[in-house]
Design brief:
By secondary structure, the protein is of the alpha/beta class. It has two domains: about 5-175, Rossmann fold, CATH 3.40.50.1970; about 175-355, Dehydroquinate synthase-like - alpha domain (Dehydroquinate synthase-like, alpha domain). The chain contains 13 helices and eleven strands. It has a seven-stranded mixed sheet with strand order 1-2-9-6-5-3-4, with helices on both faces. It is globular and about 60 Å long.
């Protein structure tokens, strides 16, 4: 993709651009313009840093740059990892003019964002997303946080970035499993808000799995458009933004039940979407379309055999519980979602039974 695409997340004075393009870390974008002070700290992990840290640093000419390298993986999305970042900020004497830059996928982005939200009650944040899941979903919208043994993302804050930078060339080094996991979130966007986008993905499975640059750029741009519109309408998830949680109530329970990191987040979301579809008013043909697309993308469509009781226990700590009732995001049809807090327990028990050994 030769040209830049910029999507603005409209939040008044806190609006920010999501910039998508090729070769942005190779010098096709002046990142230093978005670092207001002289000091910045890049947070990355052991996998991504050897690939892209030097290129990112070269885009920060004239700035004082420090780095923190975290261990890789969802298992390290903890308060201890966030404290490593905060400890580094304290050791560096960082003040409120410091900018934190997250270089990596969703885990790095969430940890860095949480540190940015809490250090001195908030410092500037830039997201440089290097995985497809982060590019289509987690880097946009300002959700930050870390996991607790009792539940996914139970510790966190809303903290919007100043910029989201997406260099599509980083996907060239992304493992196939992580690519597929990222595509699960794109399927989610089509399922809840855009039937034409869902159809396009059905028609372009081979190109997406082959890492065709134009196809992946289209996925990133379209998903960012959908997410930006939802976040602009409902930044703190009081209403419409909850629709972005389609499949996530089950997915978070799967991740917690297995142990964080056993399944990738997108893999759990894929199985969770199918389970949510089973609770929905969706007709059989449309349910099968969802299952067929996920299977074509190489994603799981059933939970792991952890048992219904374990899944239910994990769901009871879900952040989406309101008035002690679980809220589910369900589908009226592909492209149209709604919030339900009145799912019959017998139906829920039947779907949770998919997790029986």
């Amino acid at each position: 993709m030769a040209t830049l695409h910029t999507q603005i997340v409209e939040l008044g004075e806190r609006s920010y651009p999501v910039v998508v393009g090729s070769g942005l870390l190779a010098g096709n974008f002046n990142l230093a313009d978005y670092v207001s002070g002289t000091d910045c700290m890049i947070v990355s992990n052991e996998t991504v840093a050897p690939l892209y840290l030097q290129a990112l640093t070269s885009n920060l000419s004239g700035k004082s740059v420090k780095t923190v390298i975290l261990p890789d993986g969802e298992a390290h999305k903890t308060i201890d990892s966030a404290m490593l970042v905060i400890d580094a900020l304290v050791a560096a004497g960082a003040n409120r003019d410091t900018t934190l830059i997250a270089l990596g996928g969703g885990v790095v982005g969430d940890i860095t964002g949480f540190a940015a939200a809490t250090y001195m009650r908030g410092v500037s944040l830039i997201q440089v997303a290097t995985t497809l899941l982060a590019q289509v979903d987690s880097s946009v919208g300002g959700k930050t946080g870390v996991n607790h043994p009792g539940g996914k993302n139970l510790i966190g804050a809303f903290h919007q970035p100043k910029l989201v930078l997406i260099d599509t060339e980083t996907l060239n080094t992304l493992p196939d499993r992580e690519l597929r996991a990222g595509l699960a979130e794109a399927v989610k966007h089509g399922a809840i808000a855009a039937s034409d986008y869902f159809l396009w993905m059905e028609q372009n499975v081979e190109a997406l799995l082959a890492k065709d640059g134009d196809a992946l750029a289209q996925v990133i741009i379209r998903s960012c458009q959908i997410k930006a519109a939802v976040v602009a309408e409902d930044e703190r998830e009081h209403g419409a933004r909850a629709l972005l949680n389609f499949g996530h109530t089950f997915a978070h329970a799967i991740e917690n039940s297995l142990g964080y990191g056993e399944w990738l987040h997108g893999e759990a979301v894929a199985a969770g979407m199918v389970m949510a579809a089973e609770l929905s008013e969706l007709d059989e043909a449309q349910q099968q379309r969802l299952i067929a697309l996920l299977e074509a993308l190489g994603l799981p469509v059933r939970p792991p055999p952890v048992g219904a009781a374990r899944l239910r226990k994990a769901m009871n700590l879900d952040k989406k519980i309101m008035a002690k009732r679980l809220r589910f995001i369900l589908l009226e049809s592909i492209g149209s979602a709604y919030i339900a807090d009145d799912v019959p327990d017998a139906l829920l028990s039947r779907v949770l039974a998919y997790g029986e050994p």
